[in-house]
Automatic annotation (TrEMBL):
PROSITE patterns: PROKAR_LIPOPROTEIN. It holds the Pfam family Arm_2. It is found in: Endoplasmic reticulum membrane; Mitochondrion outer membrane. InterPro entries: ARM-like, ARM-rpt_dom, ARM-type_fold, Armcx_regulator. This is Armadillo repeat-containing protein 10.
Length: 225
């Protein structure tokens, strides 16, 4: 291969080899850059999860972010949005357990005492969804002041939600009208409050409530207490 022809073959081979190396370089560089960009892509922040644009069911890590936000912020707008997101996710049984294990029930429960009426309502919505899970009911603590939410002067939206909470707990305890279990009502638990004489009398008094929807709700509960 000593003539010009041989030299031509060598040059062609070098060109092909260089081209192949360049293609491999571009491919590898592109893949690395893509991996790097993917790794740098920020995950959704807790506030992003509450903006109404995130439709997926939250996972445990996202729920933990949301609970931290709910516990740490004083902004009523963010609190309300976080409670709405949490309440929506608490409609799923798997998340009912996750929120309990993350210590979320007392965090939500504390918001019932908030001075903002809308926040109070959203907290009760979330608590209602969480209370469908029997194990969660044991964790719900609210003090004797909680019973004041059953007073006739309380806003209709709040009354309907605390009556629903009573129904959820009562329905979980009973099967075909009979007590499925005989739980121990420890003082300070929601069980103790809602199955006490004071709560029973308050609910019965609501049968004369001026709002038809509240009255209808009460009439569905009274035969069960």
């Amino acid at each position: 291969m000593g003539g010009p022809r041989g030299a031509g073959w060598v040059a062609a081979g070098l060109l092909l080899g260089a081209g192949a190396c360049y293609c491999i370089y571009r491919l590898t560089r592109g893949r690395r850059r893509g991996d790097r960009e993917l790794g740098m892509r920020p995950s959704k922040s807790a506030e992003d999860l509450t903006d109404g644009s995130y439709d997926d069911v939250l996972n445990a890590a996202q729920l933990q972010k949301l609970l931290y936000l709910l516990e740490s912020t004083e902004d009523p707008v963010i609190i309300e949005r976080a409670l709405i997101t949490l309440g929506n996710n608490a409609a799923f049984s798997v998340n009912q357990a996750i929120i309990r294990e993350l210590g979320g029930i007392p965090i939500v429960g504390n918001k019932i005492n908030h001075s903002n009426q809308s926040i109070k309502e959203k907290a009760l919505n979330a608590l209602n969804n969480l209370s469908v899970n029997v194990e969660n009911q044991i964790k719900i603590k609210v003090d004797s002041s909680f019973l004041s939410l059953y007073d006739s002067h309380v806003a209709k939206e709040i009354l309907l939600r605390v009556l629903t909470l009573f129904q959820n707990i009562n329905n979980c305890l009973k099967i075909e009208g009979r007590l499925a279990v005989q739980p121990t009502f420890t003082e300070g638990s929601l069980f103790f409050l809602l199955h006490g004489e004071e709560c029973t009398q308050k609910i019965k008094a609501l049968v004369d409530h001026h709002d038809a929807e509240v009255k209808e709700k009460v009439l569905t509960i009274i035969p069960k207490i």
